[in-house]
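User: Before I run my own analysis I want an independent prediction to cross-check against. Here's the chain; please return only the structure tokens and, at the end, one sentence I can use as a sanity check.
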Amino acid sequence: MWFVLALLSAVFAALTSILAKVGIDGVNSNLATAIRTVVVVVMAWGMVFLTNAQNGIAEISKRSWLFLILSGLATGASWLCYYKALQLGDASKVVPIDKLSVVITLVLAFVFLHEQFTTKSLIGCILIGIGTMVMVL
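Assistant: Structure tokens:
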């Protein structure tokens, strides 16, 4: 099931890029990001209440709160940079560079989470890096 959800995530991310590129035409990128964020907040809280998950709020540890807040700040910074980049550049160039986050995530997971780098993941990182450069240059 995780694979299907990850694949759907990629499809929705692709749609996000195309819809955002069209939507930010003539709109300040920060304003566009704020509008997108409100929609995401409403949708996320809708799912919380739809699945009756709101009862779990009290059980969240201080450590989890801290890291969820930091993750939210990182997401916000990413979205602000992404929308500005989309506004200034071609989606076909911005999106591949944005997807270098896969390589950066693997490196950070190795350094901070002590996840193992396999030969397969190292080759994949190199190929993603090369592929990104080929697409952007």
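Sanity check: The CA atoms of residues 75 and 128 lie 22 Å apart.
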